[in-house]
């Protein structure tokens, strides 16, 4: 058995921030999950639908691995990323750092992980790996998935090799902190402004505040959009609240990030952003509840109310990011 020593195997709410937390704590940098998410400019919005999809997808964060790249750039970390089409090389890319005493981040498809409670394909899942033996790999996943967990090496290989939406080619990564690390406090304002600029200036109407407004117009028709509303709508609601988002489609995490920032930086713009995102987080939880009820009851009035709230959310989040862009 090969294990990295002194691993703090602390599971958080979201997969990518959980893995980043493990790797950074091993480098001596211990940040809260909201701070990791916020410094990585993680908040976003996307409405994703196509003829090939059974039902629309609502996303509340930047695309997989962008948060990791953002965080490394902001904090001046050395991020070493490896990808390959060879399963043999992929294993070497993981075993070598662990043999040398360094944990490794992996992007993979959660469907093939033995411990995973919900068997759905998701190629953007991220875990930290800190050990292995002849049969199993030892990982850190989110707290809801068990925190410190293990899966068979065969299952891990399948998870890493899976192709599909948001998947990567056996992606693995390590992080090294500089001898004199950048102060996270000094990078808060640039990270917030980067996030605000992207949210306020989306390149297409499916993203940012424009994406929320588009969703407001489309969601009242979701009962007709689905072949199985009793299954599709409650699942969409669960993805907003429970699927590693920290609740409220990641708005709880960003609200809590802004709370931490306000304790470090005295700014009326920051206080305004926090107040508005506190309101938005509450409304997103209401949206999820209404969508679930609509699917269970078949009552379109719930979706009409959802559309009205989403219209308001587009305005609230626009105003919040507008205030934060003035930092």
TrEMBL record:
Stored InterPro entries: BtrH_N (IPR026935), DUF4872 (IPR032369)
Residue ranges occupied by any DUF4872 domain in the UniProt entry: 155-324
Any one Pfam family match given in the protein's UniProt record, by short name: BtrH_N
Domain Butirosin biosynthesis protein H N-terminal: from-to ranges: 14-142
Protein name per UniProt: BtrH N-terminal domain-containing protein
Species for this entry: Streptomyces cupreus
